[in-house]
Amino acid sequence: MTEIYNKFKHDVLNKAFDDEHRKKIGFNIDRYNDAVVRGKQQYVNLELARQRAAHLKYKAIIELEKNLVDFESNFERNGGKVIWAQDAADALREIDAIMVKHSATKVVKSKTMISEEINLNEHLESRQIESLETDLGEFIVQLAGEQPYHIVTPAMHKSKEDVARLFNEKFNLPANSTPEQITAFVRRFLRDKFMNADVGITGANFIISDTGSICLTENEGNGILSMSLPKVHIAIAGIEKVLPSLKHLDIFWPLLATHGTGQNLTAYNSIISGPRQEGETDGPQDMYVILLDNGRSEVLARKHQRRALSCIRCGACLNTCPVYKTIGGHAYGTTYSGPIGSVITPWMKGMNDYKHLSYASSLCGSCTEVCPVKINLHELLLYNRNDSVKLRYYSVFDALSMFAWKKIMLNRKWMDTGSGKLKNLILNKVFAKAWGSRRKLPTLSERNFKQLWEERREGK
């Protein structure tokens, strides 16, 4: 067993039986569910929209190389610069070079999970560069010294009382501050940071090939401020974020908003096609887009699992997953949690270390049912499990137990050998620890099926 797996088991046990944690996440997900029901009412035929989105996004993934080359050509024609990064180290090295070139010491960031993926904040701080999250939820978890809990709502695990206590500790705000008061304080606090930042860093919800654009969708306006006020804008995007044409946004933006937050459309939707042009008064002087692989090619190489690259990061699969709702986002120990994270993380970060995530699922299929781009997530988890066995990522105990089980199940005499009492004893000795201390093993009947059938035939 790896250290990563042992930590996962420890964290799962703590969170699954933490009633306060379950209460907070349950409350917040219930509010999300109510909003999504309302948001879906904008669709006359939601299933048709999902089918079209699924087709378009998967086609974009299949034609990924062409779409990325087209994006690079068009974006650089607009005056921007595209940087290709094979892994996190490449991306961080390129960001360092940009910081040095522009003598940057202060960075503002809008919400972007890909920066969490490469541990950007920690890296910049190690270079004595201030890196500040400007999304309210991200700002809260950064103050708390935590990782985002959720793809869309990073502070979902905190109550308003938790946040008030945090701001009391960090900024001496009253311990009973309301959400409105905290938000107003953060707004004032961040305004100066925006005005004095050297570099703004964002992600990209989509990258558009035919116009050479990136697209941002948000509700707070911090993304717009992060990319327009500093002199330099860096956008970091996974290579899978591509869409062939600007016209496809009319399908994807409403689907993302509806499934992400229950809105018809998020408050701010921006299309950025490069740095400030001659005659324009707003925008950065220099703009860079870093296209990051970081294991995505490993997912792309899988015949079935590559469909997971169609994900638009709405978070719907997390909110419906009974496992996520039990153990929470931090227990997964990865940037991308929930069903989608369990599919892609083993390939992006190593199957041997993360194969357990593919087994942390009830396979109920709810994630597949709610996905706006119709990714068959529960089936992809099964493919992951199968691949982990093919790659021989299993223990000696796993191999021996399955070998013995197969031999016994294929031999009627062996199945009938021994009393029910003896079989239950063996079952408890062999599997009780693996089954867990909080679950009872099933009890085998004293008489097997053959005995019961013969008794029935004889009329006993």
Describe the fold and architecture.
Helices cover 54% and strands 10% of the residues. With 460 residues, it is of the alpha/beta class. It folds into three domains: 1-42 and 313-394, no CATH class; 45-294, Rossmann fold, CATH 3.40.50.10420; 397-457, no CATH class. Helix 2 packs antiparallel against helix 12 (249-261) and helix 16 packs parallel to helix 20 (377-390). The longest helix has 21 residues, at 19-39. The mean pLDDT is 94.
CA-atom Rg in angstroms: 25 Å
Number of helices: 24
Overall pLDDT score: 94
Strand order, sheet with most strands: 1-10-7-4-2-3
The CATH topology of the largest domain is what? Rossmann fold
Oligomer: single chain
Overall shape: it is: globular
Residues in helices, as a percent range: 40-55%
The biggest beta sheet is recorded as:
6 strands, parallel
* CATH C-level of the largest domain: Alpha Beta
Number of strands: 10
Distance between the termini: 50 Å
Low-confidence runs of at least 5 consecutive residues: none
Fourth CATH level, the homologous superfamily of the largest domain: NagB/RpiA/CoA transferase-like
Helix and strand content put the structural class at: alpha/beta
CATH architecture of the largest domain: 3-Layer(aba) Sandwich
- The proportion of strand residues reads 5-15%
Tally of separate domains: 3
